[in-house]
Design a protein that fits this description.
Length: about 300
């Protein structure tokens, strides 16, 4: 079942074409990472899904509901968190969430329990009576997530949720998003913090100048670019002779002997990491340690984009 179904989306501001013919389908339970430089079209696409932009061309649906024709029904299905958190002065976290619970038309008899649940999920129960404008930026971001979870939406639209956060607050937000992923929420998250998205997302789309330049799992993108995975291996016995044999494996691009290991560059589009492990054994080498490096998402991003905006 598709939660997000976008076909040939165009968004234009005056003469500027911010989004140019994007197609995007996100099935239920997926965490989709939307990556691109500022001005690439990420926020415009998210605002269309959030029913905040009506002047667009193309077909956009959320859970089968047409965004243009059924905006109120779409709003009941989504939780939208913009990149800027606006606060209401002189409200406590409790009052803030009660205000939005009323806006979401949540039954009065259920509000207290629901607010308690979202505060516990976002680890803000101890801040329930603190003024909102006195919270740290990281806590405000978690409160914003608590707010959009009040009505239990199917789709979360998160525009740069870790923007401006210190490293600890970014980790806290990332762990919260992982918990939401485990709960089965469908999430569209835009960011330029590439490493964190690579740890969180099931699929990634890279957008530049209003167009999708790559889409798929991180492994799919690396395979498309023919980028090489580095695998660190510790071997028992005569390393020099083992290196010669490893270089004969068909998908190995190079083997570099280091102080206590060898670094193998693998063409992963030709051989999987698991098959490389078997191939090393078949050469007669004995493996003490076998450690593939994490995919370098920044490398993929820089290779696919040229820094253009719409």
């Amino acid at each position: 079942m598709l939660v997000v179904d976008i076909n040939n989306l165009w968004v234009q501001y005056g003469k500027i074409k911010a989004v140019r013919g994007i197609d995007l389908q996100i099935p239920k339970g997926e965490v989709f990472g939307f990556i691109g430089p500022n001005g690439a079209g990420k926020s415009s696409t998210i605002k269309v899904l959030a029913t905040l932009l009506r002047n667009f061309k193309g077909s956009v649906k959320v859970n089968g509901l047409d965004v243009r024709r059924q905006p109120q029904k779409v709003r009941e299905q989504i939780g939208y968190m913009p990149d800027f958190f606006g606060v209401y002065e002189d409200l406590t976290a409790r009052e803030y969430l009660h205000f939005f619970a009323a806006a979401y038309r949540i039954d009065r008899t259920k509000r207290k329990a629901i607010i308690g649940d979202v505060l516990e999920l976002t680890d803000l129960t101890h801040k329930i009576d603190d003024p909102v404008d006195g919270l740290s930026r990281g806590m405000k971001q978690r409160l914003a997530l608590a707010r959009v979870l009040l009505h239990d939406p199917d789709l979360l639209l998160l525009d740069e949720p870790a923007s401006g956060l210190d490293p600890r607050a970014r980790i806290e937000v990332r762990e919260l998003l992982k918990a939401l992923k485990e709960m089965g929420k469908t999430i569209l998250i835009s960011s330029h913090i590439l490493h964190e998205l690579s740890q969180l997302c099931t699929r990634i789309g890279i957008i530049e100048a209003g167009q999708m330049v790559a889409e798929g799992s991180l492994e799919d993108i690396f395979r498309k670019l023919s980028l090489k995975r580095v695998v660190h291996v510790q071997l028992a016995g005569d390393v020099d002779s083992a290196v010669d044999r490893l270089q004969q494996i068909s998908a190995v691009d190079s083997v570099e002997a280091q102080t206590d290991r060898v670094a193998i560059k693998l063409r992963e589009d030709e051989m999987s990491i698991e098959d490389l492990h078997d191939a090393i054994h078949e050469t007669g080498a004995r493996i003490r340690m076998f450690q593939p490096e994490a995919m370098d998402m920044e490398t993929a991003f820089m290779k696919l984009t040229e820094g253009k905006t719409a």
